[in-house]
Every structure is written in structure tokens, then in C-alpha cells.
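Intended use. Records like the one below are meant for learning the mapping from a protein sequence to its folded structure. Do not use them to infer anything beyond what is encoded.
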Amino acid sequence: MAEVFDIESRWPDLFEGLPPLDRDAIVQAFASSWHEGWVPNREDVELQVRHARGEISSAEVLQLAREAAERRAGVIAD
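Structure written out for the chain above:
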């Protein structure tokens, strides 16, 4: 059975109240990466949603994503 891409159903709480245009942009961006073989995780999706809501800047998204990737790779300890 083929895997289905649906991050909105996977983490509906993240998308609550997000304007449709922002929601679609986030879903499409992650779908593109998913088609290339990357599996989205909650932390990365949450960062993009927080950015769309204006809660964090682009620079903060990059820094937090870098830190998360390093944690996942075991480069730095929690």
C-alpha cells in the first residue's frame, strides 16, 4: 500500500486557525519535499506554521531547524 501524504490530518492542532492560503503554502512545500523522499516531522512542520503565524522570524526558523537537525543527527546533546 502506498503511503499517503497528509500532514494536516497527522497534526491538526498545528493548523488550527491558520488562514487557508498559509495552510496551502505549508502543505505544498512539505509535499514537494516528501515527493523527494523526506518524511516530515512535527517539529519542522511546527516551525513553518509558527513562521506563517508571525510568531518567529525567518532567521529564527533557520536557527531552530539547524539545532533540531543537529539533535536528530546526534551532533549536540539535549
